[in-house]
């Protein structure tokens, strides 16, 4: 049986640890939000993007660096 490689986007904090969905994150202004998911990986010349849930329920997409995060694409077997 053929195994396919799939990739997953993973957001990491400044300490290098993975940020799980539902975790609180803080932006450069000190505002907090709930991390939802990563939507684009960091690549050469492009920053990663993430979606967060703000206190009022709004779920905007921001550059990951706004929240002190980086986004990596990790390969996994599926």
What does it look like?
This protein is mostly beta strands and 78 residues long. The chain has a single domain, classed as SH3 type barrels (Roll). Strands 2-3-4-5 form a 4-stranded antiparallel beta sheet, with no helix packed on it. It is globular and about 35 Å long. The model has no long low-confidence stretch (mean pLDDT 91).
Summarize the structure.
This protein is mainly β and 78 residues long.
**What series of H and E elements makes up the topology?**
EEEEEE
Mean of residue pLDDT? 91
Radius of gyration: 14 Å
Query: Helicity, in percent?
Result: under 10%
Low-confidence residue ranges: none
Region (Disordered): 1-25
Blueprint of the fold:
Elements (H helix, E strand, L loop, with lengths): L4 E8 L11 E3 L5 E9 L8 E5 L7 E3 L6 E8 L1
Antiparallel strand pairs: 1-6, 2-3, 3-4, 4-5
């Amino acid at each position: 049986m053929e195994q396919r490689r799939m990739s997953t986007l993973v957001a990491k904090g400044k300490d290098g640890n993975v940020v799980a969905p539902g975790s609180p994150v803080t932006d450069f202004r000190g505002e907090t939000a709930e991390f939802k998911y990563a939507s684009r990986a960091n690549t050469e010349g492009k920053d990663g993007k993430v979606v967060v849930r703000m206190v009022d329920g709004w779920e905007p997409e921001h550059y990951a660096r706004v929240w002190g995060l980086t986004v990596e694409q990790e390969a996994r077997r599926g």
